[in-house]
Specification:
The complex is a heterodimer of chains A (about 190) and B (about 100). Chain A contains nine helices and two strands. The longest helix of chain A has 28 residues, at about 80-105. With about 190 residues, chain A is mainly alpha-helical. Chain B has helices at about 15-25, 30-40, 45-60, 65-80. Classes of the chains: A mainly alpha (about 190), B mainly alpha (about 100). Chains A and B meet through strand 1, helix 2, helix 3, helix 4 and helix 7 of A and helix 1, helix 3 and helix 4 of B.
Chain lengths: ~190, ~100
């Protein structure tokens, strides 16, 4: 029996209303959540860990992503749209964590120094690059930078994922390229 | 399938991380899955990404047969707990929204 069929999960279903589902007071379907989690948690966790470089932070970000998506849509069914939605949300949650880390690191440099010693080398360059950019761009720019430079998505894919036009993505990428070039030159001097 | 080069910036010719996640979750149709799988097998970058997903699967589910149910209960409880909070847009960054 898979976890998704586990009757004990049905017992924890809790009635709750959601502002995203006006007038509805529906159970939180733990069996349905188990099905989504079993299918998609590994990819979402791996994505968060690549961005954040820490297993503990990645686990928190993954769980937060599931919660946010389910608060918005309790009836989320497994399928490629569900994974795209979770993936986009996990990117945003991870970007928030990176921004908060940047603020913390500026405030308490000793913590930053200690944290950098425990980071794995794997993905380190990706994270460093993204953190440099995140310090200097807005939310949209941050998402586009992660999706394009770290995740390898095309402009068309980014536009579809974020619900913006390809022209917007193109323009923002050009700005990001100029910024990245300037940062590299800054670092090289 | 990806990645390539509608912009001349990203020129790896590799599928995106999302494509690989869809492949690992079995959410791609047969033709697209086969094409991405054929690329990924000999590609060091893509094979590494797929290996990370399999490692994540082992880490999350490998040792504890009740791990999925426990995680689902935790998430369900959080959703229940926060149902009456001000809604968080999953796309939000510190409360702001995309500025397109």
């Amino acid at each position: 029996m898979s976890d998704a069929e586990d009757p004990s999960l049905c017992a924890v279903a809790a009635a709750a209303s959601s502002p995203w589902a006006p007038g509805a007071s529906r159970a939180v379907d733990a069996a349905g959540i188990a099905q989504l989690y079993e299918k998609y948690a590994p990819a979402i966790y791996a994505h968060c860990r690549r961005l954040l470089g820490s297993s503990a932070a990645a686990r928190d970000a993954m769980q937060e992503s599931f919660v946010r998506v389910l608060l918005r849509n309790r009836d989320l069914e497994p399928g490629d749209e569900a994974l795209r939605y979770l993936y986009r949300t996990a990117t945003n949650v991870s970007i928030n964590v990176l921004r908060q880390r940047a603020v913390r690191d500026r405030a308490v440099p000793e913590i930053a120094a200690r944290a950098s010693k425990t980071e794995t080398a794997e993905g380190h360059a990706d994270r460093q690059f993204v953190r440099m950019l995140l310090d200097r761009v807005d939310a949209t720019g941050g998402s586009i930078a992660v999706m394009h430079f770290v995740d390898g998505m095309t402009q068309v894919e980014i536009a579809a994922t974020l619900g913006i036009t390809r022209r917007t993505v193109f323009n923002r990428l050009k700005q990001l390229e100029r910024l990245a070039k300037a940062l590299l030159e800054e670092g090289g001097t | 399938m990806s990645a390539q080069s509608d912009d001349g910036v990203h020129d790896l010719g590799c599928p995106s991380g999302l494509d690989l996640a869809l492949l690992a979750a079995g959410e791609l149709d047969e033709a697209r899955g086969a094409a991405i799988g054929a690329h990924a097998a000999p590609c060091r970058r893509c094979a590494e990404r797929l290996r990370e997903i399999e490692e994540a699967r082992a880490e999350l589910f490998g040792k504890d047969p009740g791990a999925i149910a426990a995680a689902a209960r935790f998430i369900a409880a959080e959703v229940h707990e926060r149902a009456d909070d001000a809604p968080i847009d999953p796309d939000a960054h510190f409360g702001d929204r995309f500025d397109h």
